[in-house]
Design a protein that fits this description.
Order of helices and strands: HHHEHEHEEHEHHHEE
CATH superfamily: Vaccinia Virus protein VP39
Strand order of the largest sheet: 3-2-1-4-5-7-6
Number of helices: 9
Shape: globular
Structural class: alpha/beta
Oligomer: single chain
Distance between the termini: 44 Å
Helix content: 40-55%
């Protein structure tokens, strides 16, 4: 009951969306009611990681939130000696991540911006619904830093909410998404969430995201999941 009250509180607030203390308390349940197939996406990322990771590899999770991706990738590769680094600019979210991943010896968390972090050479970098919260003008630079941080055979898993370049198509798929969300939230809450995200999240189209990936040097780019306006890409 407490978590439901907290969720109603954050959906009733005015102003821009913030990953603060209240959001961190209900994030894991809230995101499952906000992003369709969120659990399936998590499972897919973990399954893909099994094919990628070997002993002594390094994984970065950008915008790690409560550390769920690191937790799931670790469990999928628990017999391998893999190091995990989670980065998030919300100290409140990182507190939850450290608790969730407290039994993972090789997991380290940093309170920093992904566009400013000093990356070591990595085998796998994951950014799940993170880069959409950065300024569009900085995204090419962020993706270039990610590409440069990967080994020559490294992998980038990139999940984003996308827009559609045709206005009518964009409205259509937004309505499909909001109809799905109505299973969990009232119309007033859905509208309030949309307004709170307006100034902090600006999705790009799938074509635009792929073009950015190509521009910074990724050669193999494959969509491995899509639900209307939510997409996951594997780039090498």
């Amino acid at each position: 009951m407490k978590s439901k009250a907290t969720e109603k509180l954050i959906l009733s607030r005015s102003g821009d969306w913030s990953f603060d203390h209240h959001v961190s308390l209900v994030f894991d349940t809230h995101i499952r009611k906000s992003i369709p197939c969120y659990v399936e996406i998590q499972n897919l990322i973990a399954e893909i990681s099994k094919k990628i990771l070997s002993d002594n590899d390094l994984v970065y999770d950008l915008g790690t939130a409560t550390g769920e991706i690191i937790y799931n990738v670790f469990n999928a590769n628990e017999h391998k000696n893999v190091s995990y680094v989670g980065i998030d600019n919300s100290g409140q979210m990182l507190k939850m991540a450290k608790q969730k991943c407290s039994k993972i010896k090789n997991a380290t968390f940093y309170n920093d911006k992904i566009e400013a972090f000093d990356y070591e050479t990595a085998d796998l970098i994951i950014a799940a619904f993170t880069i959409q919260f950065t300024e569009i003008k900085t995204r090419k630079q962020i993706l270039k830093r990610i590409k440069d941080a990967l080994k020559s055979d490294g992998t980038f898993i990139f999940c984003e909410k996308i827009s559609f370049q045709n206005f009518d198509e964009n409205i259509f798929f937004q309505q499909i998404h909001e109809n799905w969300k109505s299973n969990y939230f009232s119309n007033k809450e859905i509208k309030a969430k949309r307004e709170s995200l307006k100034n902090v999240m600006e999705p790009m189209s799938l074509t635009e995201n792929i073009e950015l990936l190509r521009d910074v040097g990724f050669k193999q780019i494959n969509v491995f999941f899509q639900w209307c306006n939510f997409v996951c890409i594997l780039a090498k």
